[in-house]
Amino acid sequence: MKDHTGQYKHYCTTCMRGFARKYVYEEHVMVVHEGRRFYCDLCGRGFTTKANLHNHKKRDHEMN
Ligand SMILES: [Zn+2]
Ligand SMILES: [Zn+2]
After folding, report:
1. 18 beta partners
2. Are the beta carbons of 40 and 53 closer than 8 angstroms?
3. What does the DSSP 8-state code read for residue 4?
4. Which of 2, 30, 32, 52 has a Cα at 20 to 30 A from 24?
5. Is the distance from CB of 50 to CB of 38 less than 8 angstroms?
6. Distances from the Cα of 51 to the Cα of 5, 9, 16, 23, angstroms
7. pLDDT digits (tens, 9 = 90+) for 37-61
8. Sequence-ordered list of residues with C-beta below 8 angstroms from that of 47, at least 6 positions apart, any chain
9. Are 49 and 37 in contact (CB under 8 A)?
C-alpha cells in the first residue's frame, strides 16, 4: 500500500500546509504568519514573495 505523504517534506506547524521545498515553506511562514514583505531596494515597493520581487526588478528595472 502506497501513500503520498512523502510528497511534502516540510509542513507548516501553524496551518498544516505541506511544502516540497524548504525555501517555499520558510517564505510561507514569513509572509503568511509573520506578515513579512520583500521590499525592492530601488523603488521601495513591497512584494509577498521573493519571486515577485525578482520579477518586478526584471520587468520594471530591467535587471537580471
Ligand atoms: Zn502556514
Ligand atoms: Zn522596484
Report:
1. 11
2. yes
3. -
4. 2
5. yes
6. 27, 21, 23, 11
7. 999 999 999 998 889 999 999 999 9
8. 37, 38, 39, 40, 53, 56
9. no
Ligand nearest to the CA of 62: 2
Q: Are 30 and 36 in contact (CB under 8 A)?
A: yes
Instruction: Tell me which ligand sits closest to the C-alpha of residue 31.
Output: 1
- Prediction pTM value: 0.61
Q: How far is 57 from 64, CA to CA, in rounded Å?
A: 8
> In this structure, are residues 25 and 32 in contact, taking their beta carbons and an 8 Å threshold?
no
Shortest-distance ligand to the CA of residue 26: 1
